[in-house]
Amino acid sequence: MYSSLNHLNTLGNSKKPGLNKLARVLGRLNNPETKLNNNIIITGTNGKGSVATQLSKILVKSKYNVGLYTSPHLIDINERIRINNKKILLKDLDKALKIIIKESVACSIELSFFELLTAASIYHFAKSKTDINIFEVGLGGKHDATNIVDAQIGIITNIAKDHMEYLGNTITKIAKEKVGIIRKDSHLITTAENRGLRIITEECKIKSSKISVYNKDFFFNKKKNKFQFESPTLKLEFKSSWNKYHQIKNMSLVIKSLDILQNQFGFKVPSQNIESILKNPYVPGRFQIISNEPLKVVDVAHNIAAIKNLVSNLKETLNNRKIVIIVGMLKDKKPIECIRILSEISKVIYLTDVPNERSFNPSKIIKRFNNNKIKLLPTELIKEKIMSKEPLLVTGSIYLIGDLMKKKIIQL
């Protein structure tokens, strides 16, 4: 029905890093990226989507017209582009893609899957005259398609080892890619630490960009059953169901961003709107408890840093009990190390295929373990395991979780 979506699914990732191709195509459309005001770009190894989603919800509740671009999607491709938290209609996405494809063909440029979608989001937001736009970086920062947008506020969550085949195999190299989002005279907010933070700070000096650092320029503490946020220009106290360390850091980034929007850009965001959204933040597939008795948890954790956070959270929840784990991962996400971390809380670990060409090979992975508590699970038996009466965790990949949601094996 929508020919552009069929074309999109035939495309891969860009082989050559850089923004030149995208800039040329957008130039033929009269540069819609320059018509976007008040842009926020978010990079980091984990937490980008959670921060972006909560920011959008609070701003929408405060009556702003908000563009939100995130990736990847769980089920439907139009989840990636939203205005006021509503998915772009497929007919509107198809229309935007056709316009962009037409211009790219006219100048003999083939945009990648992600470049096309990014261009579609920019075109759609400009056409919709948004008040503010939030872009989640797909990979790295410096060469990512989202970096075509001039962002007044940059957010860098944590910096850990992931996508090393593209970004480099050290924290230094990865951080140098991520600081590419920092613009001259902009404002950067981060919860990064150690070497990553030093590189961010150096880049901010070079770009004359302001920087706000977690636990230095803004603070987030738990006092009894409430959370307290404090910066020189904002103090808040509220309750939230997000009480894990990484969730607390994500909330602090959300609130500090709103603090800057209010004090530097004239936005008006009532405190009660922040408290209302952050009381029970919801991001599908992020430490989502789909059943309490028996306990069943779904989490799209897909790299070492995220798996460590997940295990830490579950240790607290399980209170020394063990849990059955179904895990499917992409082969470039260090699955062996992740499985070893998961084994700290596992009764048994079932390895299963991910519906993606980059899936790990469970049969090969299992050979690396001399452990009868790690087993293979054919995809056709996943539903049976999920329906069992044992405590269960499903994790390892957004592609695995999304596929199970599409098949209605799990419902979030």
Q: Would you give an account of this structure?
A:
The chain has 412 residues and is of the alpha/beta class. The chain has 2 domains: 3-279, UDP-N-acetylmuramoyl-L-alanine:D-glutamate ligase; 288-406, Mur ligase, C-terminal domain (Protein-Tyrosine Phosphatase, Chain A). The chain is 38% helix and 18% strand. The protein contains 15 helices and 17 strands. The protein has helices spanning 3-8, 20-28, 48-61, 90-106, 113-127, 164-167, 171-178, 194-206, 245-265, 271-279, 304-318, 335-342, 362-366, 382-386, 398-406, and strands at 39-43, 66-69, 81-83, 86-87, 132-136, 153-156, 187-190, 210-213, 219-223, 226-231, 234-238, 288-292, 295-299, 323-327, 346-351, 374-376, 392-395. The strands form 3 sheets. An 8-stranded mixed sheet has the order 4-3-2-5-1-6-7-8, sandwiched between helices. A 6-stranded mixed sheet has the order 12-13-17-14-15-16. Helix 3 (48-61) crosses helix 9 (245-265) and helix 11 runs parallel beside helix 12 (335-342). The longest helix is centred in the middle third of the chain and has 21 residues, at 245-265.
Order of strands across the widest beta sheet?
Answer: 4-3-2-5-1-6-7-8
Structural class: alpha/beta
What share of the residues lie within helices?
Answer: 25-40%
How many beta-strand runs? 17
CATH architecture classification name of the largest domain? 3-Layer(aba) Sandwich
The CATH C-level class name of the largest domain: Alpha Beta
Percent strand equals 15-25%
Mean pLDDT across the residues is: 93
